[in-house]
Every structure is written in C-alpha cells, then in structure tokens.
Amino acid sequence: MKENFLKYMNEKHSDIITALYKKYGNTQTSVGVKLSDVDENGIFIEYQDNVIQIPFEKKITDPLEYEDAIIKLCSNTKNTKDFSKIEESLIKFIDSKKTVIISSYNDGTCVSSYAPFVREDNKIFITISKIAPHFKSLSIDKNVSLMFIQDEKDAFSIFARLRATFCVTPKFHYEQDIKDKIFDKFVDLYPDDASISFIRNMSDFCVVEFELLSKGRYVKGFGAAFDLEGLKVIKQAGSTNPHSYKR
C-alpha cells in the first residue's frame, strides 16, 4: 500500500514534492526529486544520495490522511504578496493571549518577565510597579522585545509553538486619565479578577506603552515564518530552509 502511495504522489504531485525539497533542502534543483518514504511523523524526500525529513504538523494515525497532510505542508512553501489572511491570524492570535513576555536589558544583565496587556490597534499597554526589576531595565535601556507565544498544551509540536515577537521601545505614562482608561479596559477584560482594583490604587504602578511599528517575526510552524513591520506582514522569511541536515 505504501509503495502504491509513493508512486502516486511522485506521479501526480511531483510539483508538490519538488517544492518541498526546494524549501527544506536548500536547493533549486527540480530534476530527479522523489518522495522515498512516509510514516506517521512525516515524509522523506530523496535527491541523488541526499534524503531530508520533513515533519507533519501532527502525527498521522490514518494512512489515508497522508496525502492531505503533505499538501498542507506545501502550503507553507508558497510565496504570495497577499498576506491579509496571515495578518488576520496574527491579530487573532495576539488577542487570544492574556499576557505578553517582556525581555529587556540592564547593566549587562538580561531581564525577562511578563505582564497582562491591553491592545489598542498597534499599541500594547501594560502596567508595572516602579519597584519591579524590569521597570528599571525598561527605564535604562530602550531596546525591548515582546513575545506572544502559544500555550504548550495547544501546540502540535513543542518545538514549533506559534509565536510573534516584536522589537519595541517603551513609553511611560503617569497621567491619571491614561491609567484610568487602561485599568477600565482591564476590568472589561477580566471582570472577576479582584486584584485589578487593588493594583490600580497603588501609587507605584504606572502604564507602559509599546507601539508595534518596527520589525517583528510571526512563526506559524515549521517553514512558516513571516517578517513583520508592526502588525503588517512584509514577506515570508526565507525562500529556503536555513537549517542543515546530517549527510
């Protein structure tokens, strides 16, 4: 059965097999590429004496699903100028998160933390205490990275969690009207969280704004990374796979 399937794919879908090899094999060759094997974890594509393995997004328990899984892999190799659906999925993904991971730098030491956030268009707002370590690092070094990342339990592979990262610059707000506005939004998002009213009355908490305007990266899975300018996708990252394989 497997031999018949491999023959079918190589004859009927040679364009897909070739496109996958070009993407993951770091080559522009198109002659003599063939699907040599497939199992529950992925496919094996052969060219001369070189064989590369490409993992499926999830284990395939039914061999009848192999063809659809391979075609789905190929969708990640297509270059397009219409990124509207990718941008929609990016915004939907960010809005599905409750917290953002913040990485900053302070006097030779990297500082990582997290905070609940509110999004307004391309702006991310958090609230932090002035006594928190990352408040000092945000104040001293304006080079900051934000990361939104998929929950481990929802990822098809622990090595390919959906994620979006942005290079940002913090802007501090101490105005009471802005603080009230952002905390009102936190209340709307989390009406049952009693700590919000407690924190908003603390004088050491302020609002920090990050505007998503500069470069970023959105990774949807293996072979599906996109370069960003703010929330806009500007191109698919890399026409070939940057990784190498054992020979």
From TrEMBL:
Membrane-crossing segments per the record: none
Superkingdom per UniProt: Bacteria
Pfam families to which the protein is assigned, alphabetical: DUF2470
UniProt-recorded name of the protein: Pyridoxamine 5'-phosphate oxidase family protein
Entries under Gene3D superfamilies matching the protein: Electron Transport, Fmn-binding Protein, Chain A, PNP-oxidase-like
InterPro entries referenced in this protein's UniProt entry, alphabetically: DUF2470, Haem_oxidase_HugZ-like_sf, Split_barrel_FMN-bd
Residues annotated as domain DUF2470: 4-72
